[in-house]
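DM from R.C. (forwarded with permission)

"hey, sorry to bug you on a friday — could you get me a structure for this? deadline for the figure draft is monday and I only need the backbone to look sensible"
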Amino acid sequence: GSLKTPRREAGWRALALSGPDLPLFEAAGGERRSAPDLSGVRLPKMALSEEVARDYVHLSLSLKAHPMSFLRSHFNSYGYRPCGQLLTAKNGARFGLAGLVLVRQRPGSAKGVIFATLEDETGIANVVIWQNMFQRYRKTVIGSKLLGVVGRLQREGEVIHLVAEQLVDWTSALSRLSEGGFDPSLAHADEIVRPGADARQKPARAKGLIAPGAEIIPASRDFH
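My reply, with the result:
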C-alpha cells in the first residue's frame, strides 16, 4: 500500500486482510471466518497533530511535522521565541524558548554544569544550566521532555548558548497533540506559570505519576 495512506485507514485495512490458517486452528477443526467487508466504512479523519504524536510514540520521529509546530501559537503567547531566532539575537539579550529535550550532559570537568540541547520546528538551541540553577530546578531539568527556558544569550564566535535563569516543565502540553492540537483557551488551565514567575510555585505533581504527554516523546540521551 501507499505510504501516504492515513494511519487509521491503514490500520483498518490491515485488520481486513485474510491471513493463512494457523496449524493449531486447522487441527482443532475450526471454521475459518471470512474477513469483514470494510469497503463501506467511513473513518473520521485523524488530526495531523495526532498522527505526528503516534509517529513519535512508535518511531521516535515523524516526517509529517514537528510537535512544536502545533504548540507554537501557545508558546508565542507566553513570550517564548523559536530556536532559529537565536542566530540573529544580540549577545547578552534576554531570550525565552521552549523545545523537546534531545540531550542532557554533565561533563566531569564542568564542575556540576548541565548542558542541554533543545529542539523545535526551527532548529536546535544549546542551553547552559549552572549548578545553582540546577539545584533550584532539579526536578524540572531532569524530568522535562518539553522544557521552557528563559535566560541570557551568550555568543562566542559561531557558538551560541542560552544561559538559563528560569526553567519550566511544559511536558504536559504534549498531551494536546493526541487530542487533535492545542486549544489556546485552555492555556491557563494547565497550572503552569509564566516564564517571568518562579517555577517553584507550580503545584507539585504527585510522586510516582508520569506527567501527561510524557509517553509521546522518547527519552532524551542523557550522559552524567
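R.C.: lifesaver. Helices lie at 7-16, 23-27, 48-59, 72-77, 131-136, 138-143.
me: no worries. The CA atoms of residues 143 and 209 lie 12 Å apart.
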